[in-house]
Amino acid sequence: MSMAGNLRRVTSLGKGGRLRRAARLARRRPRVDLSHPARSPLGSSVVNCVTYRDGVRIPESVGLVDAVERVRSRRDGFVWLGLHEPTDEEFAGIAELFDLHPLAVEDAVEAHQRPKLERYGETLFAVFKTICYVEHEELTATSEVVTTGEIMVFTGRDFVVTVRHGRHGSLGPLREELESDPRQLAKGPSAVLHAVADHVVDDFLTAIDAVQADVDSVETAVFAEDGARLDPGRIYQLKRELLELKRAVVPLGRPLEELATRPIRVVDPEIQAYFRDVSDHLARATEQIAAFDELLNSILQAHLAQVTVAQNEDMRKITAWAAIVAVPTMVCGVYGMNFDHMPELGWRYGYGLVLGVIAAACVTLYRGFRRNGWL
Length: 375
Hints:
Elements: H1 3-10, H2 17-26, E1 46-53, E2 56-57, H3 64-74, E3 78-84, H4 88-98, H5 102-110, E4 116-120, E5 123-133, E6 146-155, E7 159-165, H6 172-179, H7 182-185, H8 189-222, H9 232-249, H10 253-261, H11 269-335, H12 350-371
């Protein structure tokens, strides 16, 4: 049975002999390494389960229960279990095995949480919002700019359980990067917690750099010659997506500050310095988002001002042409009243004179409006 199948069995078994039975069943076939797929091809939420000792991965084909028992009996190393969108049934046995708090388990399964850090006895529960930039050829009023997901991390003395929600943010490359640095990984589960936090914040910065290009393109379009014709829905959509980014980034500041400054039993003191570095990167991301928000407000105001100016120019043109057309309309209206005794009705050149006066008046008005910039 694969590791994924064994973990499904863990959810329905209690402690003691039944758990050991599940571990023995797991030895019949080699463990399946599913680090990279977003979801296990076996239909389980299990992505990977690995034991580390002195920062080195232990290549042994044992079940989750046996791995935990060995780590706890030797008091050396830790187990890293990775899950993707587990159900209540899939997570039940795991929660019992690691003695996870029901409230934290509920948050991990249901997702849709804001970034936070909570302590439940000897276990830390951290929630991170993940961000992925959505590539698009041109920003429109309906373009999706960023998509979000979540990573929950349970950190104990001898275990790390990561629960991921969403189709992006795979931790497989992160696991490989950590395994290439045994000295850092030897610091224990808190090293994994730091790596996840650093990975999430780096993704923030990557997404923000991509959003910068969208903001620049909108700014260029607004101040172009025909900027007044720009669809304001593009600006509103970008502000809306920026708000989604802000919801993921800004609330994470307080949890990172707590990890960086307050002594926590399951966090290695040496790791706290690394959390301070992550907190600095997050501060940079927060400042950039605030700058984007202010810039988009200015761009929107500038666009509305351009629209107003364009409307005023159109109204001036319409008014000028209306004034020019009013001259022949008035003269023709007067001479269309069919009275017998009207000036120049009997004169041979009266018709031509009236037309000349109308033309001269219209040309004079046209030149005056052109000189004043109305036409």
